[in-house]
Structure formats: C-alpha cells, structure tokens
What we know:
The complex is a heterodimer of chains A (219) and B (295). Chain A is mostly helical and 219 residues long. In chain A, 76% of the residues lie in helices and 0% in strands. Chain A has 7 helices and no strands. Chain A has helices at residues 4-22, 33-66, 71-89, 105-136, 142-157, 160-169, 173-209. In chain A, helix 3 (71-89) packs across helix 4, helix 5 crosses helix 6 (160-169) and helix 5 (142-157) crosses helix 7 (173-209). The longest helix of chain A has 37 residues, at 173-209. Chain B folds into 2 domains: 2-48 and 259-290, no CATH class; 56-255, MTH777-like (Rossmann fold), CATH 3.40.50.10160. Helices cover 56% and strands 11% of the residues of chain B. Chain B has helices at residues 2-26, 30-45, 56-66, 85-101, 116-130, 148-154, 159-162, 198-210, 227-232, 241-252, 257-294; strands spanning 73-79, 105-110, 139-144, 189-194, 214-218, 238-240. In chain B, strand 5 (214-218), helix 9 and strand 6 (238-240) form a beta-alpha-beta unit. In chain B, helix 2 (30-45) runs antiparallel to helix 11, helix 4 packs across helix 5 and helix 6 (148-154) runs parallel beside helix 8. Chains A and B meet through helix 2, helix 4, helix 5, helix 6 and helix 7 of A and helix 2, helix 5, helix 6, helix 9 and helix 10 of B.
Amino acid sequence: MKTTVPVIAAFLSGFVMLLAFFFNPETSFLGRLEPEVLSWVTIVGGFTLLLGVVSIIRVNYSSVKRKSSGWGYKLATLVSIFAMAIPAIFPVRWSSLFGTGTGSIYDWLFNYIDSPMMSTMFAMLAFYIASAAFRAFRARNAEATLLLITATLVMLWRVPMGEALLQGIHGNLPNLINTYIMNGANMAVQRGIIIGAALGAAAMSLRIMLGIERTYMGK
Amino acid sequence: MTILLVFAYILLILIGAFLLYMAFKTDDRRYIYAAVAFYVIFPVIVTLKLPITTSPEVKQLYDAVEALPDSSTVMLTFDYYPSTLAETEPMSHAALHHLFRKDCKVITMTTIPLGGPSIAERVTRKLAEEYNKVYGIDFVNLGYKANYVAVLKGMGTSIETIYPTDNSGTRLSEIPMMENIENYSDIDFIFVVADNSIVDYWISIVNAQYNNPVGTGVTAVMAPRYFAYISSGQMTGMLGGMKGAAEYETLLNKPAAANMGMTSQSLVHLFIIFSVIAGNIIFLTSKKGRDGKRT
C-alpha cells in the first residue's frame, strides 16, 4: 500500500501532463484535468515548503537545547526565521507593518539585512576568483593552454576596455570571438549538454511513471 | 580635468602592478585582494565613461521590444536572488525604462521566494513614479507562487487560477488592467531576468508550448549556455551580465548603474588577465630553470 499508492499517483499525474502536451485540453477528453493536476502540484509544493520550515526548526532547536557546537549560529537561524515569517503572516489590515508589502517589517528586514548580506557573500567571489586565477591558471599542457587562451580572449571581449584592446589588435577580432568561440565551439558543446540532459530527464520521468525509479519514496 | 583623470588611472595601474609584485614576492594573497578592492572601488569614485559597443544578442532583444506595438502587454519576471542584484537589477531597470517609455502594460512576477516580490515591488514602483504610471492600470505585481513548473504551465490556461490575487492580496478580477488578460495568448512578450536555470523552463514550457516570444537577461556566468537557444530561434535576444545591461542602457540612451560598473569590471578583468599571464611567465621560467638544473 505504501508503495502502490505513490506509484499510481505518479503514473496518473505524469500521464495526464504527457497527454496534455499533445492534445488540446479544451477540445479533448482531458477537459479541466490538466489545470486540476497543476493546482494540486502547487498545493503539494506549499506543503513541502512547510515541511522544510518545520524540519529546519526541529534540527536547530534540538542543537540549541543541547548547546552543541555552534549553537549560537543555530539560535540566530531560529530568530531570523521567526523574525521574517511572523510579521509576514499577519494580515495587512491589522497594520501596515505586517504582510510583505512596501514598508512592512518583512520588507525592511529583506532590504536592509538580508539583501546586503547576500550581495556581500556573492561579492567575495571576485576576490577568491582573482586569487585562484593567479595561483592555479597555469599552462601545464596543451589542453590547459587552449583553455587559458580562450578564457583570456572571452574575458577581454566581455569588457569595454578589453574590447577596445582587441579591436586595436584587429578591428574584427571581437566579432570573430562572438562567431567562432561563443556561437561556434561554445554553442555546439552547450547544445550537446542540453540535449543530453533533456534525454536523461525524459528517461528518468519514464522510470518514475513506470515505478522503476522509487528513490523519491526514500527507497 | 582629463589630465587629472589620466593621472589618477595611471596611478591606479601602478598601485595594481606594485600589489601584484608584492603578491609574487611574499606569496601573500591579501595583496591580490587589496588590488581587486582598489579596482572595484576607485572607478566608482572617479568615473570613466567608456564607449560601449552593442552585441547582436542585445540588439535583437532591443529590436524585439521596440517592434512591439505601443500599449502591448509584457510580462517581466524578477527571477533572481539579492546576491546577483549588481548584475540583474540594472537589466530590470533598463527593461522597465523601455517598456514604460513605450506605454506597455507590465505584469511582473517571480519564482524566487526570497525577496523576489520585494525586489519587483521596489524596482517597478520607482520606475513607475518616473513615468507617471498607475498601479492596476499600467502595471501589476503578481508576486510569488510556489512550484515554478506548475506556475509556468498553469498560466498557459489561466493566470487567475494560479494567481487569484496580486502581491498585496487584491483579487485579479478587481484590477482593471487584468480584465482582458486571461493567459499567455493575451501577453505579447515575456522578458525574463534571471540568475538561475528557470530560463530553461521559460523556453521549454512557455516558448515551446505556447509560442510566446521570450527575451532574457541573465548573469555573465549563465550567458554561454543560452547562445544555443538564440541560434535556434527559441530565445529572442539576451542580455549577458552587466555588459549586456550596459549595452541595453546605451541603446536606450539611459546610461545608469551598468554603464558605471563597466570601468570596475574592465579593470578587474584586465588585472586578472595580467596576473594570470605574469603567473604563467614565472611558472614557465621557474620550470625551465628546474629542468635545466636536472640536466
């Protein structure tokens, strides 16, 4: 029962969506079946978010209670979750500080704490990339040398000063990089990856629908 | 003034060269960090106006939006996290400048729960004020809804089923602009600004299944992936990173944040290239020396 019901649900949901791709829902027997399935997906998606929140609270709360290593950070996580979530849940009609609109507590926390922190973390990457490039980007063999030359050309091409430098060497060099590197070698490889990934996804979907793949059930 | 500017930038290059020399000499990476910090911060204080040439992908997107009849309905997505604001927000700004200038009706939405609706609200209201646009008549913010695949697919049948209310809780049936908009067939163009693989779903679901033209603004790291979609005609132009945004701003004749960021980005790119070349010269000469000693 624990296995059969999810397999049947996965098969039916997948089959409806598969048919909906090939048949017009308005003129075929599918009717409102497709939007109905999609509504269910959104509802289940909402519950998975709730499950995630409950799980993160349970894990962090038990660490704080036991005062295990780094419990202070876990406490900060818990405080942050409640500080962001509670004012956002209360209805706006009670106060303009509630909800997620402009001027709300949620909006303030997002704009002045969360957003600068995330931007700062991401900005640190520039320093690490510069340091890593300087230390590790070596022309050790033919492949590494080819990668080094290509990366240098693309990096120059992507900024105005570099573009001007390339144009100084040969007027048409930026266009050649766009044509032969980005729209040539790069595109061919990316297309291969995209098609390969799509075929893999189709095969995986079929395995799930037929009940062969059951890892989503924890098996 | 120009002489002072040239002098300041020569000084900046010399400081960078000195810091790089110190990094090699002491093997201390903090000199590299200091140089990068200099090259990022200095151009923000002493701005240099650089000529921006337009790439075909950006021109294609600009032309597609320009070719839309006035008062068309356009969906603009804010599918990005705050971490990539520096790259993506100038794209949203430029897109809104273009759309409001053409009197387009703009529907904004996001598939990002963390801040997506707030970013959309902040950016759209700021630009709307500049162009005297009214909420509910000229633009609407649908906000966020969980499970993006179902959201993208579901809006093909009915936007109201997926988003019964807008971001502030007003029912869509009460919003005048949404009166005649039922699904994708009532939307003329979709402008996706994203920092994640949601772009693939906009292409594979919305463009492939509903034939809506989709133009994108993506981070520089993501851009190489999407040349394949432009070539196949599934994507109508693309803004790649801050440079793409700067090109779009230039086409609009509205140079702003992306144009300002170009000097910092140019200097950091050139510094990295220079340090990689210098590192390789040292690597090759030291290797030659070691090989020579062995023989």
